[in-house]
Amino acid sequence: MGAFVITKKDEDHYKFVYTSRKGKIVFSSATYELKMDIEDDIALIKENAETAFCMKFKTSRGQFFYRLIINDKVYATSRKFSTALRLEKGIAEVKLYVPKAETLDFSGADIFADQE
């Protein structure tokens, strides 16, 4: 099972990534100004993951990726996949595991702060 990881970016913006159980980033969001908006969108993605539309794309370098779309809004963009088959497997895993994913909030923690 994977996890949504919320982090705080420069200029007080928030972002989330969905990581696989092995810690690999599966998809990531755009930036958000408010933390409550990101939490609401994660809840919406979890509730609708099984029926979400994944629009597939191919880069000029031959890699594949998708955008996770719910109610005509793009919520996340996937990592790049080397083959169309891996893309399909990645989408299937999202539909299976995202509804059960936990949310980890690292937006308030400075995990790289120097230890005293």
Describe this structure in words.
The chain is α+β, with helices and mostly antiparallel strands and 116 residues long. It has a single domain (3-105), classed as PH-domain like (Roll), CATH 2.30.29. It is 24% helix and 35% strand. It has two helices and seven strands. A seven-stranded mixed beta sheet has the order 4-5-6-3-2-1-7. A hairpin with a 5-residue loop joins strand 4 (53-58) and strand 5 (64-70). The model has no long low-confidence stretch (mean pLDDT 91).
Short descriptors:
116 residues; PH-domain like
Summary?
InterPro entries: YegP-like_sf. The chain has 116 residues and is α+β, with helices and mostly antiparallel strands.
Strand order of the largest sheet: 4-5-6-3-2-1-7
The number of E-state strands comes to 7
Largest sheet: 7 strands, mixed
Poorly predicted residue ranges: none
Structural class: alpha+beta
The number of distinct helices, counting runs of at least 4 residues, comes to: 2
The end-to-end span amounts to 35 Å
Mean pLDDT: 91
CATH class: Mainly Beta
Instruction: Indicate how many domains the architecture comprises.
Output: 1
Outline: globular
Approximately how much beta-strand content do the residues carry?
35-45%
User: Within the CATH hierarchy, at the fold level, what is the topology?
Assistant: PH-domain like
Report the C-alpha radius of gyration, rounded.
15 Å
Q: What is the level-2 CATH architecture name?
A: Roll
Secondary-structure element order, N to C: EEEHEEEHE
Helix content: 10-25%
